[in-house]
Amino acid sequence: MKFEAAIFDLDGTLIDSAGIWDEIDKKFLGRRGLDVPEDYAAAIACYTLREAAEYTAERFSLNEDTDGIIAEWQQMAAEEYSRLRFKKGASELLKTLKANGVKLALATSADRELCQAVLKANGAQPLFDSCIYTDMTGRSKEYPDVYIYAAGALGCGVRQCVVIEDTAAASAAAQSAGFKVIKAGDGEFPAGEILGIFK
Q: C-alpha angle 112/46/30, rounded to 5°?
């Protein structure tokens, strides 16, 4: 079956945002006299912002409101996200796919405002036919719901869509539902590999 759509992750895939969140983690926990455990970033990588806040409060025994934690994170992240640029080759790939009739969706656990700030800064808002957030499905990227939702929003079947992801857990979740997955982690953005699938 011919592929008709591409579903992109945002953080770690289209943008290198890990450094931002590493700093936010350090500042947030540092304000509370805590160090960042080595496994913390990996532990929350697939979580929604709310799930990450709930996990953080429980793990570090913080007697704090979840909404307050989220608001603090958002305030720290907002300015940084508006300055982020897509990885080299990503913008050109999206434009080429769009010009060739490939349907495009974003499937992300990122906060909506942060996500839209990045898309606007990179002139990419018009390129995506749909933006799907994990809070629309009620489950994190450890489950394939967000990708299935995105495929439905594009009017495509699972096997007509390619998912581009950077984390192992999210990639495995998408594969478990029958999606073709291309890994886009550290290093060069796999523009050629992605484009090759749609030729």
A: 85
CB-CB neighbours of 49 under 10 Å: 22
| 3-class secondary structure, 112 | helix
Dihedral sign for Cα 18, 105, 110, 80, please: positive
pLDDT tens column, 116-140: 999 999 999 999 999 999 999 989 9
DSSP structure string for 116-150: HHHHHHTT-GGG-SEEEEGGGTTS-TTSTHHHHHH
Q: Which helix (H) or strand (E) holds 105?
A: strand 103-108
Do 52 and 130 fall into the same domain? Answer: no
Per-residue pLDDT of 51-63, as tens digits, reads 999 999 999 999 9
* Of 70, 87, 65, the residue nearest 18 (C-alpha): 87
CA distance 73 to 27: 10
For residues 165 and 194, the answer to whether their CB atoms sit within 8 Å is no
Token pair 């606007």 in the structure block, residue: 120
Q: Are residues 97 and 178 in the same domain?
A: yes
- Specify the pTM: 0.84
Domain span at residue 26 reads 18-81
Same domain, 193 and 111: yes
